[in-house]
């Protein structure tokens, strides 16, 4: 879906089917680089109990072909849980790859650990790269960060939560450490000198500072998700915005953005 995140972003919410049905008689709609993040919950290794939206989330995976056909991109990137590679999900994975192959796209895939690109929190995802006919298929960039004992001149030690949090200026947007809501609970301290677990919209590592003194602001949580400090969040569901978003740092490695 295309969702409104700020007044300067996409102005409406459309299902992939509605997007595919948009009138484009002159074929003016054209996308250079298309990124897709279909719902992943139904394929997640943590998904052990059937969910209310499983059927819809499963079906949405196959909207990929409709989105590509409509937007006619040169390059496509797609993020999905690595759980889709499990044998029980093989039909879904083969069907997803078929969405690209049926349109003549070259395609490759790789399971990626985002901490290897500078994320201070762990996240392992399947990344699919695809190129339209006649276009060169891009390669997955090499890791530039590693475990501290293995660091070299070409690979830095993992970027830590402490380093990410210390870079936030007091006047950063979406940053209000004095908010009373951040001081209402007791938070368990954790070690910010090593990369932390995956940050989730519903809880993550407890949503408190490493020293346990208060809850983390949206800016601090977004920093652990590699959002630029200048990015401004709008709307009511800020935590869903940073929690569900593809890691921006990987876009920088691919396209320098």
TrEMBL record:
One BP term from GO: negative regulation of gene expression via chromosomal CpG island methylation
Signal peptide residue numbers: none
Its EC number(s): 2.1.1.37
Highest taxon, organism lineage: Eukaryota
Name of protein: DNA (cytosine-5-)-methyltransferase
Active site (UniProt): 40
InterPro entries: C5-Methyltransferase, C5_MeTfrase, SAM-dependent_MTases_sf
Annotated stretches, region: Disordered: 148-178
Family, as annotated: Belongs to the class I-like SAM-binding methyltransferase superfamily. C5-methyltransferase family.
MF GO annotations: DNA (cytosine-5-)-methyltransferase activity; DNA binding
A single GO cellular-component term on record: nucleus
Keywords: Methyltransferase, S-adenosyl-L-methionine, Transferase
Enzyme class, broadest EC rank: transferase
